[in-house]
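User: Show me an example of a complex going from sequences to structure tokens.

Assistant: Sure. Here are the input components:
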Amino acid sequence: MSGLRIGIDVGGTNTDAVVLDAGDRLLAKAKRPTTPEVTGGLRAALDAVLAELDDRRRAEVSRVMLGTTHATNAILERENLGRVAVVRLGAPATTSVPPLSDWPEDLRKAVSAGEAVLPGGFFVDGRPITPLDSGAVRRFLDGVRADAVAVTGVFSPAGAEQEAEVGELVAREYGLPVSLSHELGWLGLLERENATVLNACLYGVAARVTAALTEALRERGLAARPYLAQNDGTLMTLEHAARLPVSTIGSGPANSLRGAAFLSGVADAVVADVGGTSTDLGVLVGGFPRESSAATEIGGVLTNFRMPDILSIALGGGSVVRDGSVGPDSVGYRITEEALVCGGGTMTLTDAAVHAGRTAGVPPAWPERLAGLPLRHETLRAALALADEMVEDAVDRMTLGRADRPLVAVGGGAFLLPDRILGVSRVVRPPHAEVANAVGAAIALASGRVDTILPAGESRAKAIESAKEQAAAKAVRAGADPAQVEIVDLQEIPLSYLSEPAVRLHVKAAGPLAR
Amino acid sequence: MRTGSLAAVRAIRDHGPVPLVALADLPGDTLIVPLSGIGAPTVSHEMPHGEHEPKRIAEEVERLFGRPPGAVMSSEIGGSNGVAPVAWAAQLGLPLLDADAMGRAFPEVQMVSMYVAGLPADLVVMADVVGNVVTIRPVDGLWSERLARAACVASGSSALMADYVLTAARARGVVIEGTVTRALSIGRATQDTADPLGALRDTLGAVRLITGKLVDVDRRTTGGFVRGSATIEGTGADRGRRLVVELQNENLVAVEDGRVRAMVPDLIAVVDTQTATAIQTEALRYGQRVAVLAWPCDPLWRTPRGLEVAGPRAFGYDLEYQPI
């Protein structure tokens, strides 16, 4: 007996849950509306799938994986955020652009306990800019009231020792949680600093999620071990998530991509997750989401941590149809009242799709109801053609013109997509596609990654081996089974403009959770 | 990220607004300091400037000339060196001259109007992030580039530089006037309009070479520069056409069917069709919907000497310059 797994994914509209057995068979699935405080919807979805298990099966639930929007919501709504003392190491360099310069004023007010640019940091060639001044760090921290500290050193991705030293000082002398930038992002000081500060302000939110999940499991008598999903489609233990809460942002799209790969059995594909308001397109490479190289904006703040490369278009089941246009506005969750197929009075993309005979998996009542209505046939047809064009355009952007891969259609609105799409080899509609994101959470692996700069010379091979070991060790710390950890990604990128040839090395290791 | 504009916003908040002055309004003996950042973009992205570099340069200039500088000028109006001088002027409490030394962007230090005009390249003052000041007395512009580059690498591949400090009297006919005003007018014209692309074209007096989709970006980094090409396939009325833009940090030559449509030193820009925002060479991606615009450079660059310094041959293209 190796137990059952429950995957839960909190989305903007719905919270989905699934139960998988040891052989990855889906035993139960449920969709419940997401509640404003998130936790209510989570409990409802959990209860709904548990109701389908008998007592013996319930006792077999050994793991619960949660992908949630708590962190995203906290940042968007500026609620429950911790006050962060922002330390940058690099003075007198970088002072022309102080920390948080590009933050929206209200977010900055909610988060910053004070900012300081202090001596420290490194040049591109590894020499220190100025020696680290622990006294200056203490003087700054003595003068602020903060819940957490964020430390960002110039060129720390290539040399983390100063950040680590300050981190130890803060933990030892102030007892505060610390975010260190080299754990969060890549070169690009301001973006990495932003990600680090966001991470530090989310420690309270992370504690809340952890408590809510642990409590929900305890109340239901589940002895399962909880995990949180992160933005690369892998899992973290709660201890790990407590240190890197910002990594949970973007886990939804990553889960849906991984779930699509699992349900369809296709490892290299374009995935379209069609919702009520928008469609997210992503690309699977070897079963994992392709990651974005561009900066990612969260709550009006630019960051550079790795996120799945997602193209979101304003097109979903609730998109409002008018003469010559579709969307960008949507009736959203009110679709069950407002769409024509549901007896409402608003023409939506759902109506246009059902009108054209795209009815895979939709309630039989929908086409029947539509058949009895006086319809503006031409408007519906034109809107659907426009929607198809938008999808093809988005597919082309995501595939970079490579048309030999299939498209996996998932999400509640998957039926909106046609069976033939220009730019893909075929359209795959896997079973349980409407809960692909929760499935993605349930099947996720634990991972570890290393990002570093290496000289391009002879020591390179040895350094790569050492980076692989570090990544594997990190995966094990995140919960992976040491016997099954593998290197799943290794990229060497030559760096430009440096006086000495150097490469950036990115290694990712992943493996199934340890038993 | 936009470190130049963030620094400018910050400096204006700390030091007050920066007056923009025309060359004609400056007394002839006013010292103008043309400033620019020198170094590698990867480095400035990770290690932005400090706030003391302009002051160090101004102090050194005062020591050398016996009087303080009276205005800051952008050496290069294109890219971040166009907006960062607002920060530098604010930090120094000096006005910004409505002029620059390129009327566009160029990758090398000697590609400035002062060099074209034959002004002796005999002084470079550099300041780095930790406070080092380097004064170079080169014998010519090529040595100026070579020595400044070496000092910059020693300073961690980022520094602020004053090249060709000159008086207002000397600057007449030598700098390219009105370029800050022009930059502002482009911003205003494209901001609140339903047709940013049309507004941009009209403001620049530009020719639209093609509107289409970016189908191929070939980019490699050699000798510190990004080289390569971008291929745009026409859409809509341009369907069936294909334009290749040759890159070397800047867009240098636009070729269609083996025929050159535009070439350096004339300006070529790849812009987003929706927003009319220019897309920098590093940000070009497959699938982007773009228009390629070309428009005339300052007449200075079309003189024999201008073409020698920054014409197609200066970038390794065996082409006879044909104005747009």
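The lines above are the inputs; the final block is the predicted structure for all two components together. The first strand of chain A starts at residue 4 and ends at 10.
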